[in-house]
Amino acid sequence: MTTSSVPGRTRHAALAALALAASVAALLPGSAASAAPKRADLAFEFRPTQTEISYLGGMGARAFIQAVATNVGTVAAPDVTFRFTPPPGARMDPAENEPFGWTCDASAATWSCTGPDGVEPGRAEYLNLSVFLPAGTIGHTLTLGGSVSTTATERSLRNNTGKMTFTYVVPRPADLVVNSVSVVPAWQVKADEQFDVYVELDNIGGSPAENVRVRVPLPATVRPVSLDPEFAGWTCAVVGADPDRAVECLRTGAYDISQPYNLLRLRMAAGPGTPEGPLTFAATASTSTAEVSAVNNTAQGSTVYVAEGVLAGRAWLDDDSDGQREAGEPSAYGTVGKIEFVLEGTTPSWDVPITWIYEDGTYSIRLKPGRYVANVYLREGVPYGFTTSDIGDEATDSDIVGSVDGYYKRGWSAVVDVTDGGQTTVDVGLAPSLP
Fold it and tell me: Which end of the chain is more exposed for a tag (fewer CB within 10 A), N or C?
C-alpha cells in the first residue's frame, strides 16, 4: 500500500483549490470567459404632444409627433432609420425635418426617415414628424405604427417598435386674431410716396372660419396703389365712400386654423393735404362662423405723415440784360452764394432754411407748407446785380423783384406759396453790373 506524506496531501489539496478558483473566476461577471458581446440596442418610443384630432380633418387633424430612439446598448448604433406605418389617407410633411438633416420618403405605403448620424450608447436621437390625418367620425381612432433600425447587430429587437393612437373629437370653435398691422416705412411718408400696410392674421381656434373678411378703413387722402395682397386665396377691393371708404379683403373658401403665410400687403399712397403727424391704419377681421372671442380681431399700426412742398428754380447770368434766360447763357454757379427762405412776416434767424445752387445753376429745397420769401445773396465782389424781373415768358424770366447793395448784394422774391406735395418756382437772373 502506498501512503502519501503530509506534504504530498497538502500539495494535492492546493492544486484542487486552484482548479476550483479558476472555475469560479470563469463564471464571474466581467471576466474574459463570461463577458457578453458588446452590441447596440435601440429602444423606440413615441412622444406625442396632442393625440386628439379634429373630426373635420384639415389643419385641425395635423398631428405633431416626436419619434425617439435611445441607445441602451454598449456600442454606437450607426445609420439610424425610422419607419412608420400610417393609417389610410394620412400624409407626411417631409420638409419639416429637412433643415435638421433628416431625409424622409413618404411615397410608399411605409414611410422612412434616415438620420444624419448614429446614436452613441446612452444617447437618443429625435425625429419631429408632422402628419396630416384625414377627416373621420367623432370617437373613432386611428393608429400610427413606428419602428427604428440600425445596420449594426442589436442586443435585442423587442424594444424597436411602438404605436400611437389618435382619437377624433369635436374641435374648439374658430378664433380669428389680427396679430399686427405694420406700416413700412414706419418713420415717415410724404405726399404721393408709396408705402405698404401689412396685416398679419391667423385662426388660432380649432375649426375653420367661413366668409372671412379683413377691413381696413382709409383716411380721406389715402388711396390704394395696388390691391394685390400677394398671397393666394385673397381678393381685395375698395368699398364704400368717404367717410366710410375702406379696403376689404375676402378669403376664398374656408380659412383653416394655423395657416402659413398669414399676411396681406396693401400698397398705399397719401395725397397732399394729409394732416401732419401719425397716419394710422386699423384692420378688423370678421367671419360668419361662431368664434371663441372677437376681442382679438382688431389691431392697428402707424407711420408719420410729413407735409412738405418743393421750392426750386434756376440761377443764370443774363448776359444781354433782357430779363429772359436764353440758350447759351451760363449758370450763375460761383456767383450766387446762399439762398434762404423766410416765412412771410418774419425775419431771418439762425435756423432759417437755406440752400445753394448746383453747377448747372439749379437748386431745390423741401419746405413746410407756408408763404415764403426767397432771399438770394451774391458772393462778395462779383460784377453782377439782379436783372429786371417778370419780363416775357414766365418759364424763363427772373422772379427776384427787389434788391439792395451792401457788403453782400441781396435780392428777394415776391411772397410765394409752398403747398403740401406741390412745387413752386423762383428763378434768379443776374445781369452784369454797370461800370
Answer: N
Contact in structure between 251 and 231 (CB atoms under 8 Å): no
Residue type, 48: P
Give the position of cell 419639416.
Answer: 96
DSSP string computed for 239-269? ES-TTS-EEEEEESS-B-SS-S--EEEEEEE
* Separation between Cα atoms, residue 195 and residue 268, nearest integer Å: 5
344 & 414 share domain: yes
Q: How high is the mean pLDDT of the chain?
A: 89
Residue 432: count other Cβ atoms within 10 Å of its Cβ: 15
**CA 124 from chain center: how many Å?**
34
User: What does the pLDDT average to over 285-293?
Assistant: 96
Average pLDDT over residues 146-151: 96
H/E element, 26: helix 6-27
Domain boundary among 260, 290, 305: 305
Determine the structural domain holding residue 374 and report its residue range: 309-432
Question: Do residues 425 and 352 share a domain?
Answer: yes
18 within a domain of the structure (yes/no): no
Higher per-residue confidence, 405 vs 185? 185
- Residue 4, helix vs strand vs coil: coil
Residue-wise DSSP of 139-181 = T-EEEEEEEEE-SSPBS-STTSEEEEEEEEEPPPPB-EEEEEE
pTM, two decimal places = 0.75
